[in-house]
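User: Hello! I'm new to structural biology and keep hearing that structure can be predicted from sequence alone. Could you demonstrate with Beta-ketoacyl synthase-like protein? Please show me the input and the output so I can see what each looks like.

Assistant: Of course. The first part below is the input, the amino acid sequence of Beta-ketoacyl synthase-like protein. The second part is the output, the predicted structure written as tokens.
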Amino acid sequence: MSGKCFINGIAGISAQLTTDGDAFFDDVVEHTELIFRAIDPDYKKYIKPAAMRRMSKSVKMGVTASQMALDQAGIEMPDAIITGTGMGCKQDSEKFLENILHNDEQFLTPTLFIQSTHNTVGGQIALGLNCKAYNVTYVQAAASFEVALMDAKLKLLEKENQHILVGGIDEIAKNSSRLHTLDGHIKSEPLAVIDLLFSTSSGTVTSEGATFMTVTNDSSNKNIAEILDVTIFNQATPEEVEDELKEFMQRNSVEISDLDAVILGTNGDGDFDLYYHKLQQGVFADVQQIGYKHLIGEHHTASAFAYWLGCKIFNKQQLPEIVKMNKKETSSFKTILLYNQYRGKNHSFALLQQC
């Protein structure tokens, strides 16, 4: 997809201490649960207490992360708000369904239903900013954030000097997590999440988080990274993924040898991590390999965190030991490839270049 697309502000709320602007995994939280929550920042700095009482976890995370990204970019009003979510505001959805059962489908208040829709986060951000611009939410499973980003890139082609807010949000909810455990998506045996990259059993761990960034087509010294390209495809064999990678790199006139690092969405699911392992042992054998889901867990928009991680690496020009997946050492970082898939579907590639 042609056209300039720069990241000039980015923020992530996750299961690690990622809201401190200077810290870079200096203190790692080692989760031992298979289902764990994001670490709450001080929401009161960004949301009025009266409004916060009526907000679910995903709304609080989304509103806060979006404002942090806007503040970093120095933008008061975005020209569009585009969000991606895999399952939306699950907590309010479950509460509403429980009320239907407990009240025999009578005397129901509409509040929980209104707040349970997938576009609630985007709507709340717009209400807080008084933003009446383009506002869309995409629900495309593990490709939700990438689809939102592709829409943002298309919007940037329409007009110069635009600033668009793009984000991915997902939250933990009790009953849906139980269902994912029953269908084998979540591991059945206890696991120290820090060891997730070495796991060979079926399933993964699940978590929640919100990553927002402001993208623009305006060249500026405030820009952190340029998103050269992003692509998605659904089902593929490991061999077909490698073919897609070669075509993607060729389209962008980038060689594998030009990559300073590759950020992989390895999540410890022994049934599907083979997609990553084939590339790690093959075309990426001589490239610095980076992982992050052993730190923040898995959810449908976890891949958005890879953009936060890439931007952090560009700014710091160093790599914490905790994210390294091989012994390759890199002295400087200018070009990074991102690759993610979930259970053999919703594959995505993205190329980031330092500004």
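User: So the tokens describe the shape?

Assistant: Right, they're a compact way of writing down the 3D structure. Reading them back into a model, for example: The mean pLDDT is 93.
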